[in-house]
Write a structure and sequence with these properties.
Radius of gyration: 21 Å
Protein name: Large ribosomal subunit protein bL32
Strand content: 15-25%
Low-confidence stretches: none
Oligomer: single chain
Order of helices and strands: HEEEE
Keywords: Ribonucleoprotein, Ribosomal protein
GO cellular component, one term: large ribosomal subunit
Pfam family, one: Ribosomal_L32p
Mean pLDDT: 79
Shape: rod-shaped
Largest sheet: 2 strands, antiparallel
Family: Belongs to the bacterial ribosomal protein bL32 family.
């Protein structure tokens, strides 16, 4: 037997669909490498937040 609509709260209904949203990646221009990179990711050259992380 199905659960009546009034028994499921609004927040519970929204949680069912919350994971289906498609997001675009955040891309920003980085002056230290002179190119574009994704936010919160290490660049291909090994830079993160303007510092060399990987040799």
């Amino acid at each position: 037997m199905a659960v009546p609509a009034r028994k499921a709260s609004k927040s519970k209904k929204k949680l069912r669909r919350a994971h289906q949203k498609i997001l675009k990646p955040e891309i920003s221009y980085d002056e230290s490498i002179g190119g574009y990179r994704r936010s919160h990711y290490v660049s291909l050259n090994g830079h993160y937040k303007g510092k060399k992380i990987i040799k």
